[in-house]
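Lab notebook page, bench 4
Experiment: in silico fold of construct C2
Operator: M.H.
Input chain length: 359 residues
Purpose: comparison with the prior construct
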Amino acid sequence: MSRTLRETVRSVARVAAPAALTRIGPVPTSSQQVADAVARPASAPDRSAGPAACPWCGASTVDAVPTGTRRVRCTSCGVQLTWPWPDAAELDHAYADWYRPEGGRFSGPGDAILRITRGSTAWTVDRIAPDGVVIDVGAGDGHLLDALHRRGRDAIGLERDADTTARPDLRDDALDELERPDGGAAAVVLWHVIEHLPEPRIAIREAVRLLKPGGVLVLACPNADSRQARSFGDRWLAWDQPRHLVHFTPAALEEGLRAEGFAVRTRGHLRAGQSVFCALHGLVGRVPGAGDLYDAIRQPDARQAPLSGARRAWTAAVAAAVLPVAALAAAGEALEGRGASIYLEAVRTDTPTSEPHGR
């Protein structure tokens, strides 16, 4: 081990490890303790800066509790909302060409790794879904579609501004614009998508409409009730504001799915991805002189801010040193049921129990 790396390990041990193993430590146990821990900021939010009703449960946001620099918590269902709610101009910038450039987002093998990990979901979907078409919402570059096609599955993807000429299996449609496949879809995949949607409950109802009875919903999203979210606070990568609008807890997500007629069959944390990287990103950010790890692994034209070569190298060295700590912390919180991501498989039972709330 080089001297520089040894010094990096010592720096990480002093700065990052105590934070990972103590701040990602015991969590409040009573509901009042949880509310007090989450509602740190004292100032009340501007009630005109977001939707009047929670987009997940429909309750009024008048009593929403501030939880961070730009988040409030619905006191009815417990989801957090980005607040102020972004306008169209802010979202257009957030999803501009820099976010997903044609030349690829990540340096080195990053895009190839993303293609493999995204496509690996095809095995699970093909195994648990009945015969029929699979609908991938937020299909991106079509990696999951490609993997499903290789398994002999008929699949279509929905993606904003999709090039439907180059890929006829992509649709530039919203869920409510998609026609129900003959006989109903076998599966709907919402893979790190639902948190981007301004009306996620409507999306779940559209999934019910599209699925055949016995069809499955495969869903993954960040866990706002994870130890990472509490430890890193506003610096947690998975808040990803303003792109992420609604920040879910497992309890709120499952309750909403059951109310819409789904039976949750499988739940987990590690399978949903991102857990180790989000922990790594947070720990690296606590080391003096380190840059934003997410920007550091992206192509120059895909970064939110310029990053010098020297600082990028230092950030990579810190990340290499702290990776075992991040992996240990992510595994521990996942085993405890408080992992950074939520993974759910749910079956449409055709017995919704909720009363629809307005858009």
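Observations: Confidence is low (pLDDT under 50) at residues 1-42. The first helix runs from residue 3 to 15.
Next step: discuss at group meeting.
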